[in-house]
Every structure is written in structure tokens, then in C-alpha cells.
Prior knowledge:
By secondary structure, this protein is of the alpha/beta class. The protein contains five helices and five strands, in the order E-E-E-H-E-H-E-H-H-H.
Amino acid sequence: MGLRILGIDPGSRITGFGVVEVSGGKARYITSGCLRVGGEGSLPLRLKAIFEGISEVVTEFSPQEMAIEQVFVRHNIDSALKLGQARGAAICAATYLGLEVFEYTPTRIKQAVVGRGHASKDQVQFMMKTLLQLSATPQEDAADALACALCHFNSRDTLGLIRKAMS
């Protein structure tokens, strides 16, 4: 078994996740999906559901590392704060279960998998279907999570070289 990477596209109502396994310089699809915690519940209950959902994914699929999208502020600061809290719940679940966590900007993730930092959701979905040889197009949030995992796969060798140089 190779290294398993969990990618997360955080959201306070829908959190995408995707797991890939890296072996021999290639990434293989393991699973993906969405934790739908929106609607009726209060924010604390949604954060609890994200923590529990990510914990279940980690327990079932045994990734060793997690890559997560960083917070970005578009227009609504309240939305950005909720997104940050959703990220925090996912990061806490992963670190509680022993995963090392890596963070990437949305632009870097898109650049890594599409070649353009401002690619559309459709382009990310198409590339995830193509790169991972999926039979169907993944849902937007799941595709973004898979893209985050692949971004980390593409970056981790460079990160290792930087760590060696600094030690």
C-alpha cells in the first residue's frame, strides 16, 4: 500500500473530501464524496458533524496526510469566518487522528491540476475525471477535494527537499 492523501474542500454546509493513494509516482482514486451538514442545524452542530464526518473518513480509509484548501475572502466576511471554522473542525479531526496537515490556496490547487489558477469548477471536475480515470464526473465539492489531494501529491517532493535543506 502506498501513501494515502485526504483532500478537503471545506464548507460550513457542504465539505468535500477525496482520498487518493500514491505509489510509484502515480495517484490512484480511492474514494470521494460530500459531507452535507447544512440546513437546519446551528453552526456548532454543523462543526461537530464535520469533525465526526472527517473522523469517519480517516478511520475507514486510513490516509496518512491531509491537504486542505486555505480560507479566502471574497465579499462576505461572515461567510469567510464560517469557512474558517469549518476548516478548523476538519483540521482538528485530522490532527486528532494523527495526520499531518498541509494547506494550499485555491489558486495553487487549480494551477496544479488544470494549469490555470483561475480555472472554472467545470474544468476542475473534468480534470479530476480525466486524471483519476473516473467513470463519472465527481460532484463539485468532491472534485475540489480530489484536486487538493493531487496538488499535495504534486508538491510533496518539493516540500521534502525544502525540509532537508533547512535541517
